[in-house]
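Next up, a chain.

===
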Amino acid sequence: MSHRNACLTPAGRRRLAQLIVDQGWPLRRAAERWNCSVTTAKRWADRYRADKTTSLEDRPSRPAHSPRRTSRRTEHRIVGLRVSRRWGPARIAYRLGLPVSTVHKVLQRYGCPPLAWVDPATGVRVKWARQRAVRYVHDHPGDLVHVDVKKLGRIPDGGGHKIHGRQQGQKNRGTARPGYHFIHNAVDDCSRLAYSEILTDERKETAAGFWTRANAYFTAAGITVKRVLTDNGSCYRSRAFAEALGEVTHKRTRPYRPQTNGKVERFNRTLLAEWAYAQPYTNEAERVAAFDGFLHHYNHHRGHTALKGQSPADCVPNLSGQNS
């Protein structure tokens, strides 16, 4: 778009074309008069000669016909997965067998906001800042396993505020507090294979017992754990947890730097979005009953963007039940 003082505004283009077509000026002389190239002068003269009533505005560069454009049905499938599943462009592309760039352009064309601006449970558009950490991936399964605990409030019988609603900033008064569940998670850095349990606390004995069972799970899948990364919680600094680790090297994150343990933090976010808050549950037992199904889907069927659309079962050949 030209600025208002430019010579070749739409009105200036018309005066240039009129000199050439109506008054018979040579192209070179008219081009010198309007300080433009002969090619530019000829282009506006030809358009004016073809139709003197037409506007000499800039025409869009988009072609009139795009035979290789993504079909409308595929575009609707892309937007449908974005709205119903809250998936990113890479995951949608792996599901539909399309290039990631194509899915990204379709989402932009339909005005879909970034996932960082959308509430993962309700799909309502919000906006919050999200830090981006440096990506790294270990070469072999078992080189590093991320371990963490996610504290999750239990749902009271009859459902919580997602069913009954509540005013902003006010708590549900007069109801007994059902307490919390402590979800212990272990995620392999390379394959994203996850082992998780819903437990009642995060004491040192509980954390040690969880790791013993998690290590047995990874061993059964053919993964030999070499290092474990945790935060600086008291249960992970205990002697009981150190004894449970045995010869496995124990690494801890820097204080107040949870992004160092980003793989399991990302799993916590997926766990909340696709299980804990994926639908309104009427009680905690109903949500707990859906946990095993979520974990199986995550490990065996869910395509991961970090794995180029593959599931952890595709990267761990010895994982049992991967065809179920």
Summary: The first strand starts at residue 145 and ends at 153. The chain has a mean pLDDT of 85. Residues 204-220 form the longest helix (17 residues).
